[in-house]
Every structure is written in C-alpha cells, then in structure tokens.
Write a structure and sequence with these properties.
heterodimer; A: about 250 residues; alpha/beta; Rossmann fold; 9-stranded mixed beta sheet; two-stranded antiparallel sheet; about 30% strand; B: about 325 residues; 2 domains; 17 strands; about 30% helix; binds flavin-adenine dinucleotide
Chain lengths: ~250, ~325
C-alpha cells in the first residue's frame, strides 16, 4: 500500500496572531511553526500502517522553502520521502490541484490529510482533492483500518459516530482518534540524522488558478471585563443570565 | 439571480441551522432581487422554510438517501443547483455540510468560503467575512468565481423572519450509486449535540476524576444543554473524544457556554470563543478563563454546581 500524507505547516497553537502589510498578510515574525495537529495524528497512523502492514509513506506540502523544517520533522518521525510543491498557497482549490497532481503521479492508494489546518481553518483541501482524483472521501475520520483494498473508517458526526466502508483509493480528513495523543512521536536523534539523508523533492507547480483570495484581516474587538458574582449568590448569576444576557 | 440553500434535516425534522441558512440567503436575495430555493432531503414540513424567505422548495423524497452519504448527497445538491441555475449556494457548518461542500465546489466549479460570519460585501468583488486562526482573527475572503458557495458558521447570523408561501415541487433526479457504505450509526438521540446546542456545559481537569461528572450531566439536563470537556479530560479517557472542544477539538458557537474547572488555555478559548455568553466557575481567580468570560464565579465547583442546579430548577419551575 502506498500512502501519501498531506502536511500543513502552521503557527504553533500558542502563537500571537498579528498581521502586516496593511493587514493583508499574517505576520510570521517570532512565530514558531509546527506540523498541523490534525495532520500529525494522520502521520502517526500512517507510521502504524508502515510498521504493521508494510506500507510506504510519503509526505507532501505545498509551500515555499520555509516549510522544509516541518517536512524534515515528518521524515524524522518516519516518512520515507517528502515532496514539496514550490508554490505559495493562496487558496484551498489551488492546493488541492497541486496535491492531486502529486497523487496521480505517485499512484497512492491512501491519502491522509487533516480535517482542517489550524491557520485558515478552511477544511476544504481533502474533500476537493478526493473529487479531483476520483477517490472516495471520509471526513472527520477518527479510526481507520485497511484490509487489502478495503477500508473501514469511523467518522465523527454531530452527536455521535458513524462506521463506513469503501474501497481504495481513499482520501481522509483525519483528526485526534486516528491515534491517541500519547501515541504521537517526538523525533529522536537517530530519526533526525536519518531524515537528513532522505529525499526531499521539489516539484514545480502545475496550476495558477485560485478561486478565493484573502483581501484583508482584522482582529476581534477587545472584550469587556468579566462580571464576578459571589459564590454565595447564585440567584444573581441566574438573574444576569436571564435578564442581561438573555441566555436562559 | 438565483440562490440555493441546502436545508438540513434529521429524522425528517428541519434543523435550526436550516432556518438560519434560509434567513441569511434571503437577506442576500432581497438586496439583489433574487429568489431563494431550498433543497430538502426526506424532510417534513418544508413549507416552514417560507417563514424565513424561501420562495421555492425542491423536495427530495428517496429511501436510498435515508442515511447521509457524501457521494449521493453531493449528487443531489449539485443537480438542484443546476436545476435552478444557482449562482450562490449557502450551507451550514454542520459536520455533514462541511463534509459535502468541498466536493460540491469541485462539481460546480464554484469558489467556496467556509466559516462565514457576515453577509457578503459587494462593492469591491464579492467579499465575505470569515473566521480564521480559530476565532483569533477574521479574514475578508473574495470569491472570484461566477458560482459561489458559502458555509455559514452556526449561530453567526441568527433567525430573521421574512414570510413567504413557498412553491413546493417534488424533485427526483437520477442518483448515482455511492461507493461508500454506511455500516452503522451510533448516535445518542436523547441528547442534543454540541453543534446543535443552545447551551453547552463544559468541564475540565478541575473536576478531579470521571466519577464526578454526575453533577455536570445533571446541570446539562436542567439546561437542555450538550456536555463538553477540555482536551486533557478526553485524553485521560474521563470523557469520550467527541466531547473535546477547542482548537483541536470541536468548535463551539452556542448562546451560552459554561466552563467548570477549566483554566482557559489559549487553545481551549480559541475553539469556544464564538459562543455568545461565557460563564466560568473556577477556584483560581487568576485562571485565564476569567479574562475571556462574561460572568464568573470564583469558587469550588463541588459547592457551586449543586447549588446552581437547585437554583436553576427553581427558576425553571417559576418560569415554566
Ligand atoms: C497543540 C495543542 C492543542 C491543544 N488543543 C486543545 C483543545 O482543543 N482544547 C483544550 O481544551 N485544550 C487544548 N490543549 C491543551 C491546553 O493547552 C490545556 O492544557 C488544557 O485546555 C487544560 O485543560 P483544563 O483547563 O481542563 O485543565 P487545567 O489547565 O489543569 O485547569 C484545571 C482548572 O481547574 C481549576 N480547578 C481545580 N479544582 C477546582 C474546583 N474544585 N472547582 C473549580 N475549579 C477547579 C483550576 O484552578 C484550573 O484552572 C492543547 C494543547 C496543545 C499543546
């Protein structure tokens, strides 16, 4: 089985979010970048398929050269090959198109992406990609088993879960649950050394088409102060929630 | 000009989100002299969409669509969009709608903006305000294609009445089979889901252990609320993963969010910030959650929550 894991390079969850160039671009100054958390669960599940079922695991990122440290980290965790499509990601459709081209050339059976990346929260690339390459798609995937060319997956739905089955090729939008938090791997020294020798291919982009473009960014207005209510005076809280906030 | 909404239902009953999406689309339509059509799948009482400005309903009744299936639902909705030549298609941000929309955008060659929180601004292109960086910022996304898909964030627009008597027509396009088989659905039907809930009661590590969740469930019961939890609580197996909310869990955009024994880490706050009113109960007055909340009680959950349950019961009885 050939697996491709889509890796998004995103600001660490604790980053301060600011914008530059007249509020038209994210300010990367002082920001630390990490593997998108949803993708990290998927990558770890891919490692399981590699170790238990002999799958091969490649990763792909659409981005400029600054994404390479994040890609090397994935190689250190155990991916065999990395492919960077050398383009500035503008919208989900363009990114999906680029990955579709990589996917077609590589004849992958399973493509693992994250439910959404935590920067622009689009949640679009995996579903678009699946359509573009004619693969099945399972979103918000919290469990995945592959037997031959058959997949069984669990999808989180509003208020519960659903078990689905289909044939490969399959694209998933993964998240926590694919593996548990405690299963995530921190690259060790040996992995880091080996990653330096693994291939990181740079591929030229195939499309310039975009459909949605960010024009500007803003931040929410600062919040007013909290109203503290005495622990002995629960009636006051209920009064505020009912009459002031109209929330109950 | 024509707009299409996908009006979601569950077991035949239209969801609140369906009416919210209808309200949003008819607001756009009234500025553009356009009509809003809704496509419904195995829903009852579809005329009720008229109350929120829907002029026409493409009413699909089909046993094979009983269980949600991305492939066949995309097929139906894209055919409905073509039927009415829809230029703008509006969906909610339910788990199912988020699942469908990307495929729909490829199928219809439409640009898609998700997590949208306001009406489009059309002086300069077609720009929609949407959440980015998990509620830490907004972006103005310009959709440049002729056809446009908008994923409206739950609870961002609200319900706005605009009464019409819709024309309801049966719509039965030929549906391609799907290669995805739904084996089983495991859903707690007597509990409201986090996505659909008006009120969410959430608890964290401050509760000390899973055995203490009885009072959280009871509080949720009294309020008709969904229960949620912080990430470590689900990682330790105290609560199911489906309850984990925050930047890496489920987003929450309820009217009321009550956080009990949750410190208010940045990743937690990001995911729940779209909630309208936030209440925190925490022993530590320095807990960061107090900076994000509207109302707070500095106190021990094991003392405050049982009292809150009692007082709310009295309040409910008096206001019934
Ligand atoms: C990449 C990444 C992603 C993350 N994503 C998420 C996410 O999506 N969601 C999320 O929740 N977290 C997330 N986290 C974790 C986050 O950083 C915090 O660790 C977590 O939210 C803390 O959970 P907590 O508030 O339950 O626990 P704690 O931080 O331990 O807080 C417990 C609180 O309970 C209070 N308390 C103790 N006893 C009582 C009592 N008797 N009565 C009342 N209060 C009491 C304490 O004062 C304390 O404030 C993420 C972290 C990382 C690194």
């Amino acid at each position: 089985m050939k697996i491709l894991v889509c890796i998004s390079h995103v600001p660490d969850t604790t980053s301060k979010i600011n914008f530059t160039d007249n509020d038209t671009a994210f300010d990367k100054n002082g920001v630390q970048f990490v593997i998108n958390p949803n993708d990290e669960f998927g990558l770890t599940r891919a490692m399981w398929f590699k170790e238990k079922q002999g799958a091969s695991v490649d990763i792909v990122t659409v981005g400029e050269k600054d994404v390479e440290p994040t890609m090397r980290k994935c190689l250190a965790i155990g991916a065999e090959k990395a492919i960077r499509v050398d383009a500035k990601p503008v919208d989900a459709f363009q990114v999906a198109k680029e990955i579709a081209d990589v996917a077609k050339n590589g004849e992958y059976d399973l493509i693992i992406a994250g439910r959404e990346s935590i920067d622009y929260n689009g949640g679009m690339v995996p579903g678009m990609l699946a359509r573009l390459i004619g693969a099945h798609f399972i979103n918000t995937c919290v469990s995945l088993e592959i037997e031959g060319d058959a997949a069984t997956a669990v999808r989180e739905i509003d208020g519960g879960k659903e078990t689905l089955s289909c044939k490969l090729p399959l694209v998933i939008g993964g998240q926590k649950g694919l593996v548990e938090e405690k299963d995530l791997r921190i690259p060790n020294m040996r992995g880091i050394m080996m990653a330096r020798k693994k291939p990181l291919d740079v591929k030229q982009p195939v499309t310039e088409v975009t459909k949605v473009e960010f024009k500007s960014f803003s931040k929410p207005a600062p919040k007013g102060d909290v109203k503290l209510v005495d622990a002995e005076n629960i009636d006051e809280l209920i009064n505020l929630l009912h009459n002031e906030a109209k929330a109950i | 000009m024509s707009l299409l909404i996908y009006a979601e239902s569950e077991n035949g009953k239209l969801k609140k989100m369906a009416y919210e999406v209808a309200s949003y689309a008819s607001s756009i339509a009234s500025n553009m002299n356009a009509e809003v059509t809704a496509v419904t799948i195995n829903a009852e009482d579809v005329e009720s969409l008229g109350q929120y400005g829907v002029g026409k309903v493409l009413n699909v009744k089909n046993e094979s669509l009983k269980a949600f299936n991305e492939e066949s639902y995309v097929d139906v909705i894209s055919k409905a969009a073509n039927e009415v030549n829809a230029e703008i298609i509006v969906l909610s941000q339910s788990a199912n709608a988020k699942y469908l929309a990307p495929a729909l955008s490829v199928e219809l060659e439409a640009g898609y903006a998700s997590n949208v929180v306001a009406l489009p601004e059309t002086e300069n292109g077609f720009q929609v305000k949407r959440n980015v960086f998990t509620n830490k910022a907004f972006g103005m996304a310009d959709i440049t294609t002729d056809k446009k898909i908008i994923g409206l964030s739950n609870n961002a627009f609200g319900l706005h009445e605009n009464s019409k008597t819709p024309e309801v027509v049966d719509f039965s396009p030929e549906i391609k089979g799907s290669g995805i088989e739904v084996k089983s659905v495991d859903k707690n039907t007597d509990k409201v889901s986090i996505a659909d809930a008006e009120v969410v009661v959430s608890a964290g590590r401050g509760l000390k252990g899973p055995e203490n969740w009885g009072m959280i469930e009871e509080l949720a019961d009294v309020l008709g609320a969904a229960t949620a939890c912080s990430k470590p609580v689900s990682d330790m197996g105290w609560r199911p993963h489906g309850e984990h909310v925050g930047q890496t869990g489920k987003p929450v955009a309820s009217n009321l969010y009550i956080a009990i024994g949750i410190s208010g880490a940045i990743q937690h706050l990001a995911g729940i910030n779209a909630s309208k009113t936030k209440v925190v109960i925490n022993t530590d007055e320095e807990a960061p959650f107090f900076k994000a909340a509207d109302y707070g009680i500095v106190g021990d959950a094991f003392e405050v929550v049982p009292q809150l349950i009692e007082k709310l019961k009295e309040f409910k009885a008096a206001n019934a």
